[in-house]
From TrEMBL:
Source organism, top-level taxon: Bacteria
Name this protein carries in UniProt: Uncharacterized protein
Length: 427
């Protein structure tokens, strides 16, 4: 689990809190009548006002106990979400993000420039394993803090902080929660133009800048973007797919052919199962990119029979240039036409049926494979490859699959004698 830095806490330990609870205290020392909220009583991803309560604009200390993965964001102002996005902090004023650890924690609001300011809150469950960036109002990670939970902001786009309290105020930044190949940039202008600080990355020997003045970027943050470092080369090992044949329907083509000639005649049976062969693949991968699928088919005939077993192999490719595609799920149909050519003996009635058995992959069937990727940066776990001048790393890829693929085919034939023709009477 990635780590978001803890905020300054009072010297006095907080009273134990039940799970899911955030309690506001008016004065230092955990005294006075507190005001508590519990996440189970309030809708997720919804702004809630505490106007009219005893602690509206009165809170000094906070005690909280939130499950790991749950975050409650408290704000200076109560406003409707911009464009319906509860995470967009435009006009919210100063904020505090309480990140759940599964135990009772505390925050001293006087130390983060938020004393007697809390007016509203919302709770959400950002994916902390997807990384976060912490922006601080003052140098040395002091003053008010805004956390950018990257799972709430898609990769490869620039997001303006117009109307946010932290805009043009950030003087220090931390990113210990970035993972693996993540990187980010802070920009001077809303559209991502102008001066920038672009050395925020998950690898390297440091994960913070205590004074943005030292890198020429103090009080300048107006927008941000993030992405994953894209590989220069990549090869994903194909996956062999075992498709159960115990379930799934059969499709067929039949032939009834009287051959009243003295010569062998050729006939063809054909079954198109393309419409039935639909699969959905979801990749678990740190990249936000498009995905390509391709299936190959090998056949294995059982000796002494006409039965042919189909063995499928899935090849996966990632379209790293398509960083605007946030989905790693792809559904596609796979073309397959099964054709059998038959020799119909002379002077017989010939019946034949070609059956193709479809197998059903249960939704969420999991396959694991590996990817070899080469980068122009030395990521953790990579080894320099002098053959091409990049750092190579072997990474795991998990695929979840569901759908239908052909698994076998059989051809049943039957011959019967033609009925005798009546004798021809001479005129």
């Amino acid at each position: 689990m990635s780590v978001v830095s803890k905020l300054p806490a009072p010297a006095a330990p907080p009273p134990a809190q039940p799970s899911g609870t955030v309690t506001l205290y008016k004065d230092a020392g955990w005294v006075g009548s507190p005001y508590s909220v519990n996440t189970r009583d309030y809708l997720k991803d919804t702004r809630h006002s505490i106007a009219g309560s005893s602690l509206h604009d009165e809170a000094t200390w906070i005690a909280f106990n939130l499950p790991v993965g749950t975050v409650m964001t408290l704000t200076d102002n109560y406003v409707a979400p911009a464009n319906g996005n509860v995470y967009d902090l435009i006009n919210c004023g100063r904020v505090v993000d309480l990140v759940g650890t599964g135990q009772t924690e505390a925050v001293d609001l006087t130390k983060i420039n938020l004393n007697d300011c809390i007016s509203a809150f919302f709770w959400h469950t950002p994916d902390l394993s997807a990384g976060a960036i912490e922006l601080y109002e003052s140098s040395a990670f002091a003053g008010n803090r805004t956390v950018l939970f990257l799972s709430e902001w898609g990769a490869g786009k620039t997001y303006a902080l117009d109307g946010w309290y932290i805009k043009d105020r950030a003087s220090s930044v931390r990113w210990p929660a970035l993972v693996d190949a993540q990187m980010a940039s802070l920009f001077n202008n809303n559209d991502g133009s102008g001066a920038a600080y672009g050395n925020i990355k998950a690898w390297g020997s440091f994960s913070e800048v205590s004074n943005l003045k030292e890198v020429g970027f103090n009080d300048a943050v107006s927008s941000f973007s993030w992405n994953n470092l894209l590989p220069k080369q990549s090869f994903v090992k194909p996956v062999d797919i075992v498709v159960p044949d115990s379930v799934g329907k059969r499709v067929s083509d039949s032939l009834h052919w009287p051959n009243d000639s003295s010569a062998v005649q050729k006939q063809t049976l054909s079954v198109d199962v393309t419409d039935e062969q639909t699969t959905t693949v979801t990749a678990t991968n740190q990249y936000t990119a498009g995905m390509q699928l391709s299936y190959s088919l090998s056949a294995k005939k059982t000796q002494g029979t006409n039965e042919v077993t189909k063995e499928w192999t899935l090849s996966v490719g990632f379209v790293y240039s398509h960083t605007d595609e946030s989905s790693l799920t792809k559904t596609q149909k796979t073309t397959l036409v099964v054709t059998v050519e038959l020799n119909v003996p002379p002077y017989c009635i010939f019946d034949a049926t070609l059956w193709v058995q479809l197998g059903q992959l249960p939704p969420g069937t999991t396959y694991k494979t590996t990817a070899e990727r080469w980068y122009d940066q030395e990521l953790k776990g990579s080894v320099y490859d002098p053959a091409n001048g990049y750092w190579k790393r072997t990474e795991s890829v998990t695929l979840q699959m569901g759908g239908t693929l052909a698994v076998s085919q059989t051809c049943e034939t039957k011959e019967s004698a033609l009925p005798e023709k009546p004798p021809v009477t001479a005129p």
